[in-house]
Amino acid sequence: MKRDNGFLKRILYTIESSPLRMTQKRERLLDALVASDRPISAAVLRDKAGLPDSDLVTVYRTLEAFERVGIIQRIPLEESGCLFEVTEPEDHHHHFVCRECHRTERLDFCLGKELEERAKKLGFTEVTHLMEVYGLCEDCQPVHESVDCVGG
Ligand SMILES: [Zn+2]
Ligand SMILES: [Zn+2]
């Protein structure tokens, strides 16, 4: 699902039709999330929204509130922490994540449905899945010194 002109409208509509109360800070955080073209950490989000260090707890609470409404996808990092991305509630996708710089590439297909079906066959209900692929992006790969072949 692309971020067309209706994207922000649909996000705002989702918020308006939920019990979520918007405050000035939440508005600023939502603006910063929508303006970001890639998933970001809570600390980066706080910077982008121009909020002070002391507001980090507010940022996490706001992200949790947005997540409950279904407009946030959480992308866990390999070691610890996670990145956050604003998405439409029915938009489900995965990412390739660089473990060095946390650059992400979006994958617009899902390989998890079959796994969910298997879980259901085993008697699990309310089945969901998280699936991210980690590696090193082109920029973060160690540079191998090239051996110059001197001809002649
Ligand atoms: Zn990287
Ligand atoms: Zn999936």
Give the tags.
binds zinc ion, 152 residues, alpha+beta, two-stranded antiparallel sheet, Dna Ligase, domain 1, Arc Repressor Mutant, subunit A, 3-stranded mixed beta sheet, globular
Fold and architecture overview:
This protein is an alpha+beta fold and 152 residues long. The chain folds into two domains: 1-90, Arc Repressor Mutant, subunit A; 92-140, 2-Layer Sandwich (Dna Ligase, domain 1), CATH 3.30.1490.190. Helices cover 35% and strands 15% of the residues. It contains five helices and five strands; from the N terminus they run H-H-H-H-E-E-E-E-H-E. A three-stranded mixed sheet has the order 4-3-5, with no helix packed on it. The longest helix has 14 residues, at 56-69. The mean pLDDT is 91. One zinc ion (ZN) binds at residues 92, 94, 110, 112, 129, 131.
Short description:
With 152 residues, the chain is of the alpha+beta class. The protein has helices spanning 6-16, 24-35, 42-48, 56-69, 113-121, and strands at 72-76, 82-86, 94-98, 104-107, 132-135.
Topology-level CATH name of the largest domain:
Arc Repressor Mutant, subunit A
- How many strands, which pairing sense, and closed or not: the largest β-sheet? 3 strands, mixed
- Helix and strand string, N-terminal first? HHHHEEEEHE
Hetero ligands: zinc ion
Rg: 19 Å
Number of strand segments: 5
- Measured by DSSP, the beta-strand proportion falls in 15-25%
Mean pLDDT: 91
Which class best fits the helix and strand makeup?
A: alpha+beta
Helix content: 25-40%
In oligomeric terms, what are we looking at? single chain
Strand order of the largest sheet: 4-3-5
CATH class of the largest domain, named Mainly Alpha
Shape: globular
Uncertain spans: none
End-to-end C-alpha gap: 57 Å
Number of domains: 2
Please, what is the CATH homologous superfamily of the largest domain?
Winged helix-like DNA-binding domain superfamily/Winged helix DNA-binding domain
The number of helical elements comes to 5
